[in-house]
Amino acid sequence: MPRPNQSVQRLYCETDLTAQALISLGESQAHYLRSVVRMSIGDAVLVFNGRDGEWLAEITELGKKRAALVLQNQTRPQDEAGDIMLLLAPIKRDRLDYLAQKATEMGASHLLPVITKRTQNSKLNIERLQANAIEAAEQCNLLHVPQIEAPRRLDQILADWPSDRSIIFCDEHADLEQGLSDLQHLKGQKIAILIGPEGGFDEAERAGLLARKDTVAVSLGPRILRADTALVAALALVQSQIGDWRQG
Ligand code: SAH
């Protein structure tokens, strides 16, 4: 039986999780267990993959280049993932890590970087963003990791936008209180939240968005927020009004 130590480390892995399954870990996860959190053979870790819930595992091998775990028992059943797509114009590189972590913690299920007229940074390291999302999911006890997609231009995204998903457009020019009460009709619906770049949306983009039937403009208060702050504010508004901060 593995020796559970006080704060059991959580690890995300892609493989299927079943009793007695042997999980092999690559160099980065082996390094993390061996040299960062200084674990040893026989210690316990928790493993999740976004499909099979969370499992208690015992470290059976721990080398420089690889490690191995054997699964013991399921500790948490898989929960239902939310379905909130976050359309976000990428911001400066140093804040992107923060953005991937906060989107994960606040329950976004997909992160879709959008290139708008005023987007400065369109070269994104998707692997790095995904690694940040995985780390956030491991640390804040999630059973899912948001899917991070490759950046696309806003006009292309909107041109073939699915008819069953509404867009909550964070509009810094919206009237105060707009969006505080009129999100209820979106409860249980597929939604996306759209946040612009540091430079905001240009007039044509904003007019196009406001003209769409599937788009609801919301205000995030009287102050102009940085895009990464707006992300947290918008997800807090949505989760508290129609999301998983409420029962059922
Ligand atoms: N440069 C713009 C602000 C852009 S802030 C200006 O000065 O007007 C980046 C993005 O965050 C905006 O495009 C918007 O999507 C969101 N945002 C920031 N503050 C907001 C607010 N008070 N209400 C709604 N959305 C906001």
What does this entry look like structurally?
By secondary structure, the chain is of the alpha/beta class. It has two domains: 9-76, Hypothetical PUA domain-like, domain 1 (Ribosomal Protein L25, Chain P); 84-242, Alpha/beta knot, CATH 3.40.1280. It has six helices and twelve strands. Strands 6, 7, 8, 9, 10, 11 and 12 form a seven-stranded parallel β-sheet that branches. It has a five-stranded mixed β-sheet with strand order 1-3-4-5-2. The radius of gyration is 20 Å and the shape is elongated. The protein starts with 8 loop residues before the first strand and ends in a 6-residue tail after the last helix. The model has no long low-confidence stretch (mean pLDDT 93). S-adenosyl-L-homocysteine binds at residues 170-172, 174, 195-196, 198-201, 219-221, 223-225, 227, 230.
What is the structure about, briefly put?
This protein is an alpha/beta fold and 248 residues long.
Task: Provide the descriptors you would attach to this structure in a database record.
single chain; about 250 residues; alpha/beta; Ribosomal Protein L25, Chain P; Alpha/beta knot; 7-stranded parallel beta sheet; 5-stranded mixed beta sheet; 6 helices; binds S-adenosyl-L-homocysteine
